[in-house]
Amino acid sequence: MRAALEDKLSACLLEGVGIDSITFSGDGEPTLNSDFPQIIDDTLALRDIYYPKAAVSVLSNATRVGDDAVFRALSKVDNPIMKIDAPTNELAALINRPYAGYDVRTVVENLKRFNGNFVLQTMFLKSDSFDSSESSVLAAWMDIVRELSPREIMVYTIDRPTPQAGLVKFEPERMRELVQPLIDEGFKIQIKG
């Protein structure tokens, strides 16, 4: 991985390609890679050589934050972007279909390790069985936000076709209305629609 990344970064530099962020995301959870801590160390070292102003970001479902090595690696990146889409296990099961044993409360407790130095990412959507804007769901999610006090929150909605039919996206204006109480409390919130 280090050699491939170094080849790409050096080629980009030679071609004059600007890079503002090196982001780990994709089809699957990046922190599941057994070499994740070393990959982060290598990425940071290469970033410092080739693109020292670029941020290193990791998009994660936050299920491995309880692992000390994973937490230490995530703590080194500029933007650990941790996802919680629902405030309860039942709703998370409907939205994310996580592995057996997923527990929202455990994720929240593990995210406290960051002391607020992370970005919380949440997708707003609705279906026949779930609605992010339902008052009790929204209130419980806001309680989690207040408990964790992340440095930033990313609220977004469906952006591409989904495997489940009948999912409805939210308009940015509606999401702003929904999170306005948190904005009023001083939380920094990005809204993407």
| Overall pLDDT score | 94
Tell me what portion of residues adopts beta-strand conformation.
15-25%
The secondary structure category is alpha/beta
State the total count of DSSP E strands. 8
Shape: globular
Element pattern in H and E: HEHEHEHHEEHEEHE
Count of separate DSSP helical elements: 7
Helix content: 40-55%
Our Rg estimate from Cα atoms comes to 18 Å
Unreliable residue runs: none
Strand order of the main beta sheet, please?
Answer: 1-2-3-4-6-8
Ends apart, CA distance between termini: 33 Å
Q: What does the largest sheet look like? A: 6 strands, parallel
Short description:
The protein has about 190 residues and is of the alpha/beta class. The protein has helices at about 1-15, 35-50, 70-75, 90-95, 105-110, 135-150, 170-185; strands spanning about 20-25, 55-60, 80-85, 120-125, 125, 150-155, 170, 190. The protein is built from seven helices and eight strands; from the N terminus they run αβαβαβααββαββαβ.
